[in-house]
Write a structure and sequence with these properties.
The structure is a homodimer. Chain A has 11 helices and no strands. Chain A is mainly α and about 220 residues long. The interface between A and B is large, with 52 and 52 residues.
C-alpha cells in the first residue's frame, strides 16, 4: 500500500523526483503514526512536525494536499497494518479460537510495555480527538472499527460453532463489545502505565461470553 | 468548591476585585469544562480560548498561574460534579442496586444525546490526551477514576450481599471493568453519534457480573 505510484508522480507541480522519494513518503507515514499514537493530531502543528522529522514542506505537499489528508493517510495505513496483525493471531489454525484472541491481547500488551505505555491505539486517539478534527475522519474511523470487529467476529464464530460461547448472545455484539472495551482498556493502561487494565478487561470479556456448562445453560434464566 | 476564597484574594499582584469576580472564575471553569469535554485541551491555545469566552488575560491569571493549573482546576471540578451525579443515582435507596447503576447509565445516555454526541467524558478525553499533556495530570486523572470506582463498588457490594452478583468475581474488579468499558463506550458513542455502544457495553457488563441461578452456580466450573 505504500509503494510509489508513478501515475501520481506525473500530477501536480513539475517536480524532479529524487531517489528516495518513496522513502520520504514512507518516513512521513511512519513518523505520523508515531505522532498519532503518542500525541494528539490537532495539538501538533504541521510545521513543528516537519521540523522534528527533518522533512521540508515542499516534500510534504508533494505527497499530501493538507494536514488532514496526511492524517487520513496515516489512519488508513494504521488500519491496514493492524488488520494484518489481527489476522496473524486470529487466523492461526494451530490455536483454539479463544486462545487466538488471547494471543492477540498478549502481543498488544507486549507492545504497550515496549513503548513504555506512551503509545496507544491510533484509532482510539483520533476517535477521542474527534471534537477537534474535521468530520472527514468520522467515517474512516468507524470503518476501521467495523473491519476489526468483523475479524474478531469471524474468530468468535468458530468458537460458537465449537460450543465454547454463550449462544444467547450474538457474536456480532460480542465482537463490538470487544473493541468498545479494548479502547477503554488501552486508555487506562496508558494512564496507569501498566497492562493490568487490559488483563482486567480481557478476563471480564471472556467471562461474559463463555458458554456456561451444559447443566448451567439449562438452568440459566 | 467554587466559592470565592478571600484568603487567596489577598495574594499576588495588588488588584481591585470587582463585583462579579466570582462569576468570572466560575465562567472560566464552566467554559473550560465545555472545552475539555468537547475539544482537546492541548490543541486549544489559551489566547484563543480567552478570546472565545471574552475574558481578559489579566483576569485569567488572577485565578490561575498557568494553562495547566487551569486544566487541573477544571478536571477537579468535573470530578466532584460527576461524583455527585453518581451519588444521586447510586445512593437512591428506592431502587435496587443494579437498577441504580442502570439509572445512571440512562441519565448519561440522555446527556450524550442532549449535546448531540459532541461532549464526552472530560476524564476520558484528558486521559487520551496524556501524551500531549504535562505529567501533572496523570495522578489527578487516576484519582478520579479510583473515586468513581469506589462509588460503583459500594453499589455493587449491596447487590453482592443480596446474592445478585457472581460471587467468583470481586466487586472491585467489576467496578474497575465498569469504568474501563465506560470510557470505551463513550468514545465510540461520540464516533457513531448514537447511544448504541453504551447499551451494548451495559448489557455485556451486567451479563458478565450477574449471579447465575443457584443450580447454575453449583454446576459452574
Amino acid at each position: 500500500m505504500e509503494t510509489p505510484n508513478s501515475a501520481k508522480r506525473g500530477r501536480g507541480r513539475p517536480r524532479k523526483i529524487h531517489e528516495g522519494a518513496f522513502e520520504t513518503k514512507e518516513r512521513l507515514i511512519r513518523h505520523g503514526t508515531a505522532l498519532l499514537t503518542e500525541r494528539g493530531f490537532a495539538s501538533t502543528g504541521l510545521e513543528q512536525f516537519l521540523k522534528d522529522v527533518g522533512i521540508p514542506k515542499g516534500s510534504f505537499y508533494h505527497y499530501f494536499p493538507s494536514k488532514d489528508a496526511f492524517g487520513l493517510a496515516v489512519l488508513q495505513n494504521y488500519g491496514i497494518y493492524f488488520a494484518r496483525k489481527l489476522d496473524k493471531w486470529l487466523l492461526n489454525e494451530n490455536r483454539a479460537p479463544l486462545d487466538r484472541l488471547q494471543d492477540f491481547i498478549d502481543d498488544a500488551k507486549g507492545g504497550l510495555a515496549r513503548f513504555s505505555f506512551r503509545r496507544g491505539c491510533l484509532v482510539g486517539n483520533l476517535g477521542q480527538e474527534l471534537g477537534s478534527l474535521s468530520d472527514e475522519f468520522r467515517d474512516p474511523l468507524e470503518d476501521i472499527f467495523q473491519d476489526w470487529q468483523a475479524r474478531v467476529k469471524a474468530c468468535l464464530d468458530i468458537a460458537m460453532e465449537n460450543g465454547e460461547l454463550d449462544n444467547t448472545q450474538s457474536t456480532n455484539d460480542m465482537a463490538a463489545c470487544f473493541w468498545i472495551g479494548w479502547e477503554g482498556a488501552i486508555l487506562r493502561a496508558k494512564l496507569v502505565q501498566s497492562t493490568e487494565p487490559v488483563d482486567l478487561f480481557a478476563r471480564s470479556f471472556f467471562m461474559g461470553i463463555k458458554a456456561p456448562s451444559l447443566t448451567t445453560k439449562l438452568n440459566r434464566e
